[in-house]
Amino acid sequence: MEADHAGDLTLRSYRRAVALVLAVVAALALTSLGASRPLDAHEAYVARSATEMLRRDDWVLPYFNGQPRLQKPPLNYWLGMAAHAASGGTAQQTVSETSARLPSALAAVALAALSIALARVIGAARRTALTAGVIAGVSLGAQEWAHNAQPEMLYAACCALEVLGFALARRASTRTERLRGATLGWLGFVLAVLSKGPLLPAMLWIGASVALCIERRRWNAWLALWPLLGLSLLLVGCAPWVAAVVAREPHAWEFWKAQMFDRTGGASAAWWRPFKLAYVGAALALLAPWSLAALAGLIQPWRARATDERRAARFLWIAVAVPMLILSFSAKAKHYYLLPALAPLAVLAAVAVQALWQRQGSDEAGPPRVRWIVRAHATLAIAAALTAAVWSLRRDFTVDVGVFARGASYVAFAGAAGCGVWAWRASAWPAFVRLATAFALVLFGRELAGLDIPRRRLQDAQFASEVGRVAGRERELIVIDGNAQLLAYYADRRVREGARAQVGEVLAATPDAWFVDEERAWSAAGHAGRVLVRDNSGADDARALNDPR
Fold this sequence. Notes:
Helix 17 packs antiparallel against helix 18. The protein contains 22 helices and 7 strands. The longest helix is centred in the N-terminal third of the chain and has 25 residues, at about 95-120. The strands form 2 sheets. The chain has a 5-stranded mixed β-sheet with strand order 4-3-5-7-6. By secondary structure, it is mainly alpha-helical. The protein has helices at about 10-30, 40-55, 75-85, 95-120, 125-135, 140-145, 150-170, 175-195, 200-215, 225-250, 250-260, 280-285, 290-295, 310-330, 340-360, 370-390, 400-420, 430-450, 455-470, 485-490, 505-510, 520-525, and strands spanning about 65, 65-70, 475-480, 495-500, 515-520, 530-535, 545. Helices cover about 60% and strands about 5% of the residues. It is elongated and about 80 Å long.
């Protein structure tokens, strides 16, 4: 299927370039994973659950704070536990921030590699494949979640493997090749289910099936994806764990059903919600600073006469469009729900960039050919900034506006960066373009390196660690109207949550407990005792460890 591409890289140069791209992605992803970047409340679930599973020597049922945690499948916990063991940690030691985040960082490198492979499978040139790897690996979405212990990046990498396998099955000319591709795709499906759940893998499979049916003009084309094989692999890969959990927690089925649909808010009653294009904006934010290329990638496959490469790009486009459409009906739109589609989106963006390169001519064409790039970036940056400002005023719009606003900022910086890349060899081009390029990359790298960690997160982690040092384990630790996750992890102990409305009853029932509450609220309520540890944040909701005795 692969076409000959004139002027493409030699195989030797291509392999060196792939190694360089993956090394750059790894260098970005593997920085600032440790204690210098404290866990947030959601990450603490992962690290603490892995810790408790190790201490219980239980690799089946995740536990958090002494209670079963059924919200997430176990693959991310297993990998965190494995990283902890590989680093020399013992079962009684806490799974570190680095061990908890390492699976996500390595998944970001795998995502870049799978994006390169996916581009080659659809017949793209080697240069295009390398561009896809850069866009996927050095993007705001990939690097932001590569530094996060939650399973989002692992989920994205597994779904990228799924799409790669189905693309191989689509390209196959023999039954044996189709079987191999479908097996790889379903393996990615199973791993994705074990990492976070079946919703997005199922949507991508539906999208791939629809794309095949449209492309081959017959409704049995989806059989090329071997659904019975997929069902068998799901039973072998997931059923044993599911059965073991249900045997110990009979209510697990009802809980999982509620989690899959209620977390996204369920289907919205507003038929017009997809017209808000929430997930188009999410794609631009996730792929910043390559947002303009991402937008072009959503348009390019349908602009011209269909070639083999463009037909394959349309296959990816439909496979991605179906999840975007289905998710658009959700009452809660969150940008990271689209992470599993990051690899095919990066490939589509790379194909669009290659088409632009071919249209604009050789490298020696000079600065005039980049004028429209400057205008397009400026227009998109202004539109994105205005859209983010308008959406921030709408209370019913729940996409992370902060991330989208940052994405819009990177679109503006990408204008300068893009011009610099295209005009790097043009001696007549002003020197400030190169300076702007360097500035954009430094700004992007600064954020990815985690140098702008919110001060409050550092203070919360320090406070929780100090509480664990001061509060003896012979007495219960109760947190009032606060997140118990960070306390459970950094204090390395079980924590009980309580509500301020019932604090008097809790205090009467457990007068010898330690209490963590807002210092002002505790004092205003007239509770006796003394303050042992303060979080020193200076905020109105500053918390303190109180000894009521």
